[in-house]
Amino acid sequence: MKKTIFFIFIILSLAFTASDYNNRYLIEIPRFVDSLDIGDIDLDGDLDVVTGHSYNEFTQWNGISRLYNDNGHINFSDSNYMENGIPWLSLGLLDKNPILDIITFKKYGGSNGQHINIIWNNDFSDTQEIFVNTNHESISGEACVGDIDNNEYQDIVFYSNNGCFWGLIYNQGNHQFSTPELHYADAPVTGIHCADLNNDGRADIVYTTASPSTYICYSYDGYFEEVEFGNRVGGALIQVKDFDKDGDKDIIVTGELPINATALYILENISNDHFEIVVDTFYMGWSASDMSIADLNNDSLPDIIYLNVFPEPEIADDTTYVDTIGGIYILYNQGGLFNFSEPQFKSLEFRQDFFRFMKTGDIDNNGYEDIVIARCRYIHLPSELEVLYNDGNGDFLDYPISTDVNNNQTNKFLKAYPNPFREEIQFIYHINNEALARLEIYDMQGKHINTLTHKQQKGGAFYTTWNGLDKNKKLCKPGSYIATLYVNNQVSQSTVIIHQ
Fold first, then answer.
1. What Å distances lie between residue 39 and 98, 140, 244, 460, CA to CA?
2. The model scores a pTM over 0.70
C-alpha cells in the first residue's frame, strides 16, 4: 500500500513539474544540490557555475557538477564523484595560477574530524586534503577566503554551528598550509565572512552567533582583536560591501525571525576600526533563505537581493497541488546613504523544491548583474539551476540579453591577481579572434607608467605580469594605478593597488 501511494505521488509530482518548464531558463542538474558558486573557471571571459551535491538513497552518489557558460547560455558539462559527500563548496584563488580552485568539505574525514578538500585549478586529478580536528562536530556553510596574514596568498576561513567555533587555515604558498586553528565562540556560529575592513592589507573576519551578536576580528601580526556588536537577530547571512561609496567596507547582516519575518542589520564603517549601527533591525514580513549584494540597476550603488522561503505547498483533496507564491525581493539602494526602496517582488514558480540558494553575476555580459538560483527538489526529482537575466530596466528575463556579439574582440573585464600586491601582479584577459592587443599602466592622473604588452595575438586567454616598475625600470610608489587593455577599438580597465 505504501509503495502504491508513493508511486502515485511521483506521477502527480512529474505532472506538476512539467507545467511551465519551457517558459523559464532551467537546467537540470544532479539531485540533492547543496551548494553553488560562480566564477570563470575556464578563463574564457564568461562566468561559469559550479554546484555541490550530497549523497542520497536514489542516486547513491555525491560530487561536483560544472556548468560552462557559452555566450550567456549555461550548459551542463560534467560531474565528478567525490568520496564522503560534498555538503558545501566555494571558489577561490589559492595559488599563483589564475585558474580558480574549488574548496569543499568532506562530511566524514576521520573519527573526530573532517577534511577540507582542494581541487587545484579546476583539475580533478590534482587534489589535496587538509584534516581538521573538529571534535566530532561538523563544519557548516561555505568557506570564505582572504589574505589574513598579508602574504599575498588567500587563506581559508570556515565555521561550525554545533561546535561553536570558527576556523582558519593559513596558506603558506606552493600548496603548503598551516595546521588548522579553531577559535571558540560563546554560542553557535551562524555565519562568517572575511574582508579587509580597516584598509591595512589584511583580511579581517566577521562572524555572527545565535546569542545573537556580531563580532569583528581585526587581523594583526600573529593575533586577532575582537569587537562585539550585540544585535537582535542571529544573522546567518553576512555580506561586506561599500554601501555608501566612501572607500570603506560596511557590514550587512540578515537573520530569520521565529515570526516568519526577516530582519536587516547594517554596520557602517566610519573609519578604520570604527563601526556604527545605521540600520537597526529593519523588519520585513517574509523569511529569507539567502541574500546577495549586487548593483542591479547599474547606478554604482549595491542593492540587496533576498531569496525568500517558499511556503509549503498544500494538497487539496489529495489530488491537486495548490501552488504557492515565493520569489525574490530587491531593496534598491537610494543615494548610497543606507536608504532603500520598498521591496520589489519578482515571483518564482514553485517547482517542488524544498531548499534554494542564489548567487549574482553578469552571466550574459550585458553590463547588468543576473541572478542564478539552485533548486534542491524533492528526493525523487533532479535538482535545477535557474537563471534570471537582468535587462537593466527592472525586469528579469528568461533568456540571455548579451550585447557581447561574436565580433567583439575582448570581454568586459580585465582581471588581476593578487590585488593589492607588493612584488608582482598577474593580468588575465581573453580575445575571441586574432587582434592587436596593448596593455598599458597609468597612474591616477593619467600619466603613462609602462607598457606591458603590445603585439598581435591569436584568440584565447593570455597572461602577463607587472613587477611594479615604470618604463624607466624604477619602482613605482605605493598607491592605485589603472591597467588599460586596448584590443582594436575595445577598451577594458582595472584598478590595481601597490601595497607598501
1. 12, 22, 26, 18
2. yes
